[in-house]
Specification:
Radius of gyration: 35 Å
Largest sheet: 7 strands, antiparallel
Structural class: alpha+beta
Distance between the termini: 44 Å
CATH architecture of the largest domain: 2-Layer Sandwich
Number of helices: 15
Shape: elongated
Helix content: 25-40%
Number of strands: 16
Strand content: 15-25%
CATH class of the largest domain: Alpha Beta
Length: about 475
């Protein structure tokens, strides 16, 4: 993930060279521009697109899924110009009185078995000509209209058709992607392309086929029914996602824009990815740090579903990234009963909250719950110095801090779980916050690297939520004695 910050793009100081010297060597200037990275060019060009209220901080190259699909079809379409002219010629000759195979072949100088004469059968099958008992041809009324309106007899052929499917929207596309990407930052398609998909999207596939054939052909059937799909493979288009973060704490939403390799704004893909991001804050989490990323993402999506239910039952508000830091301090400084913090990691960023924790624990009868641990690997262990400071508080305030290592706790309670990626903050019975903010590992400073870590603050059913958390994790319910 490319991180871009305004302080990294300050203008260089004047080198002292005269202005005309900069243009005396255009090759050097061209080379610098050519060597400039795509991300850097995008930053310079679009950094101010959302005005002074937003900052462009993340530029991510992604692989956008496009599924190349090939099927066997039966198509019907306009015949070649030569065949169409033969049909018209035969109709006109029959109208002049050349009404038998013998007379027609003699006039044309061909045998009665010639392919030109064989086209009489096509005219008969389509009702353009009729034949009497004595084998004489005549032009039907339909044939007269055929001539007047310059119609044609469709030609049916078996062929294969290759098209491309947008991995999120199901849009059927005729052209292969102009640029593909080898990046590891690949978004996974949400659709399954199989025989049922072909049936469901039949109209759109047919429209695509007709469009690329200039309206002269259409699909009339699949050639081999359920075996009609020859292959499908996933391609990844090279796109760049520009992520704009609000500069203040007003709760504004993060904004996204999507560009292709030629810096063209892709409005459809921007809408698609914005909607995906709104429902899945892990969309751009391509980190290899999480060995069980899919499990954790599923847990987060399950939490998102719970959030929707909670929204229906009470008052809530969305929380932007930089509001979280103020809220955790508020919880520790103003709570009178208990504070619960759950975070996958405990890092040095927690040091900033140690004084607030101490202040909270000085109040009589207060309790601080800290649940942590995404797994039991050493690289995800708490930061030693920070953890030591929390241990000092445990000694200072006996039985007032409850530290729960989730990987250790789950060994006996949930043998198939290694830890949790959930993030929670609960203050007394006033509110609780769910989302993607890493409470004890992310500094949340506006001057540092931005992270996409938003959340939702709920004000209703807080007491019930305390109980739900403890029951879900099989914590000791007797600890809820405040």
């Amino acid at each position: 993930m490319n991180k871009w910050h305004n302080n990294k793009h300050n203008k260089k100081k004047d080198s002292g060279k005269k202005p005309f010297q900069a243009s005396r060597n255009p090759k050097v200037v061209f080379k610098k521009q050519k060597d400039q990275s795509k991300s850097s060019q995008l930053f310079e060009k679009y950094k101010d697109d959302f005005g002074d209220e937003y900052s462009l901080n993340d530029i991510i190259e992604i692989g956008y899924p496009l599924i190349e699909t090939n099927i066997d079809i039966i198509s019907s379409g306009k015949p070649s110009d030569i065949l169409q002219e033969i049909h018209i010629l035969l109709i006109e000759l029959v109208n002049t009185g050349l009404d038998s195979k013998e007379s027609l072949s003699h006039f044309l100088g061909v045998t009665e078995n010639d392919f030109v004469i064989d086209e009489l059968y096509a005219l008969l099958e389509n009702g353009i000509l009729a034949i009497s008992e004595d084998q004489k041809y005549r032009v039907t009324t339909k044939g007269e209209v055929f001539l007047q309106e310059k119609k044609f007899i469709p030609v049916t052929t078996q062929e294969d058709f290759t098209f491309y499917i947008d991995g999120f929207t199901k849009e059927i596309l005729a052209e292969a992607p102009s640029t593909t990407s080898n990046t590891a930052n690949r978004l996974l398609s949400t659709i399954k392309v199989d025989f049922d998909f072909i049936q469901e999207e039949w109209m759109h596939i047919n429209l695509c086929f007709t469009k690329i054939n200039s309206g002269d052909k259409e699909i009339v059937d699949l050639a081999n029914y359920k075996r009609s799909m020859n292959y499908r493979k996933e391609l990844f288009q090279k796109f760049f996602v520009l992520i704009y973060y609000p500069k203040d704490n007003s709760g504004k939403k993060i904004q996204l824009k999507v560009y292709n390799n030629d810096f063209k704004l892709l409005k459809k893909q921007t809408d698609t990815i914005s909607n995906l991001f709104a429902s899945n804050k892990f969309l751009f989490d391509f980190s290899s740090e999480l060995g069980e990323a899919e499990v954790y993402k599923k847990q987060f999506l399950d939490t998102s579903t719970e959030i929707k239910d909670d929204k229906l039952s009470g008052k809530y508000q969305d929380i932007s990234t930089f509001e979280h830091k103020a809220l955790i301090k508020d919880a520790l400084m103003t709570a009178e009963l208990a504070v619960y913090i759950e975070s996958p990691w405990i890092r040095r960023a927690t040091m900033e909250y140690i004084p607030a924790m101490d202040f909270f624990l000085r109040k009589k009868g207060t309790k601080l719950f800290i649940s942590y641990g995404i797994d039991s690997r050493s690289q995800n262990a708490p930061h030693p110095e920070t953890f030591a400071e929390i241990e000092k508080l445990k000694i200072k305030y006996p039985n007032r801090i409850v530290m729960i290592s989730l990987p250790d706790h789950f060994k006996s309670k949930f043998p198939n779980r290694n830890g949790s990626h959930r993030k929670l903050l609960i203050k007394d019975f006033d509110y609780y916050i769910k989302g993607s903010y890493n409470w004890l590992s992310y500094g949340g400073n506006e001057t540092a690297n931005y992270a996409v870590e938003e959340g939702t603050q709920f004000f209703s059913n807080v007491k019930e939520f305390w109980k739900k958390v403890f029951e879900d994790y099989k914590f000791d319910l007797e600890l809820l004695d405040f």
